[in-house]
Design a protein that fits this description.
Structural class: mainly alpha
Radius of gyration: 46 Å
Number of strands: 0
Helix content: 55-70%
Shape: elongated
Largest sheet: none
Distance between the termini: 147 Å
Number of helices: 19
Number of domains: 3
Order of helices and strands: HHHHHHHHHHHHHHHHHHH
Amino acid sequence: MSESSKAYKLLVGVIQRMRLAAVGRSFYIAFLILCSAFAITLLVARLTGLTPGFLAPTNATWLAMSALPVLAVLFALVLHRKPTLPDAARLVDQSTGAKDLYLTLSLLDTSAGEYQPLVLRSAEAKAAGVSPERVVPFTWHQRFWHAIWLPCLIAVGVLFVPQLDPFGKVAKANLVNKRHERLAEAKHATEVRLAEVQRKIEEHDENNPTDDKIEELKLAFNKMQPSKKDENLKALMSEQKDIGKLWRQLSAERLKDLMSESTTGDQQFGSNNEEKLEKWQQELQQGSAGGIQKEMQDLKQALQKLAQTKDPVKRAELMQQLKEGLGDLEKLAHDKLHNEELASALDRAMQQLELSEQNDLSQEALESAMQSLELSQAELKELEQAVKDLKELEQALKTIQQAKKVNEGEKLDGEKAGDCKTLADYESLYAKILAESGEGGEEEKEGEGMGQRGFGKGGEAPEDDSVETGFKTEQSKSAVVAGKMLLSMQQKGEAEKGEVVRDYKALVQTVKQGAMEALNTEQIPPGYHDGIKGYFDALEKAKEANKPK
């Protein structure tokens, strides 16, 4: 049979329509079966709660439902029955009323006989009036609505069938989901903060403002000339202003509470744990966090052992050790170091450690706890570097104060500082010069007023308004009022015996208290503290010396 004959083309067209009809039937059947299975599963999940969270009204549920027609198409393409040429010939014979004419034609290639030309001519003659659409009509619209109302009914069930929980499975599953969500949120927060802290540490290593200021100060020291007292003072005041500003900025940001915290006020003697925290705090206040870092490293090693240990007894021991260690560090960070970032990282590690006791979260929670400990180490490293910078700035301010004293005696010579490499070298040099000139002692002797150092007898100090300082006009109200009252005491007449002395003592104490408050509230750099405290000490000494014998 020639492929160009009308009869052959008719049979090929019928085969194509038969295959489409077979795919459609297979899709229809598979879709109804899948929808029915989905509906049954939905009812079982909602009414019994045995599969908590399964087919709940979420995006995943709607995605699963939308996958039903896709699966039905795949099943239809794979499982449908493929029609053959004899199958198409039988349908053509049935449609045209021919008695096995086209069936015989489809089998001509496998048969022999002189009747073949006759069969071919008869089939060609009948094929002219027959179309594939007539032989295989599509009747899909008769069952179309079954594939519409059933998925619509399932969608209504997804939305409105209530979730029952007769066996408590749903409540348990919801608790597990919340734990997973909390763990994921904590892990994300840790990753973000860790990246931020590591970036700050790298930027600090590349460009440290404290180191830059210290180098500028050393250069200024080396440029000092004994004969240029005023210029030296102006340069020192400028450096003092810049370094003081940097000191206040660094202290106000993170270290004000840490550096002002007393290490003896709340110590509980006899408590090894408390003594350990006090020791760590004192070390950090001096710029060293070695003890705390070692404790964190020990906790990381214990955490690794916990992840590898299967023995429940050993796991319980390691868990207790980790909880106690993290609790101590969190108390240190929150109560003594006053560092909320470090305390938050340690608290997160504690929560993740507790979540690791759940079987379904064990490994993931331990990994998150390890990451939180790494964040804690990074936070501590940043804090340690900040304390070191603050201590260097304090040393710089004290060295400037020494340089100003040396400059008063016109002995501030940059050439003598040629061998100085560090601030400690400059400090030793200036202390030596002051000692040689007899000005290194701490006791102040009574001066002549505008003369040598000491408690003067009056006089007005010259001022240079061109020198910029960081002075603020803010004043302690109690100190100002008490100062005015001290001044007004000179104008009073005779008073009862002892009254003036009592009033004087009370007002001096008020002024002194106001000045001490200013040291704390205004965050005055330590380079100024000795001078302010020394003034009031001198007042007390002068008062004792002037008492009648």
